[in-house]
Design brief:
2 helices; membrane; 0% strand; transmembrane; rod-shaped; transmembrane helix; 95 residues; mainly alpha
Length: 95
């Protein structure tokens, strides 16, 4: 490059900073551009729902059981009534 061309380049006023675009291959945000099968949609949608909503509710309802377990309290099991026990007879309103 000749001296005059270099001098001209150096004396030109600076322009505003040039912004280079970095991402050319995919959008920064938005839905994926590849098609998703219904199974993938179910796993991605239902999986996040399971993790965010169902598991925390299940955990909240298990706290009493976990508390008894860690404090050494024996859980009370519901026992079925013995076969010899009969419910008391109902009174007839006619008598």
């Amino acid at each position: 490059m000749s001296f005059t061309l270099m001098r001209r380049q150096l004396l030109l006023p600076k322009r505003a900073g040039h912004v280079t675009q970095v991402r050319h291959h995919a959008p920064i945000a938005g839905p994926p551009r590849f098609p998703m099968s219904p199974g993938k949609k179910l796993i991605l949608g239902g999986g996040s729902l399971l993790v965010m909503m169902i598991i925390p509710f299940w955990a909240l309802f298990q706290i009493p059981r976990w508390s008894k377990l860690h404090n050494g309290i024996v859980e009370e099991e519901e026992s079925a009534p013995a076969e010899g026990d009969h419910p008391p007879p109902t009174k007839d309103e006619k008598n």
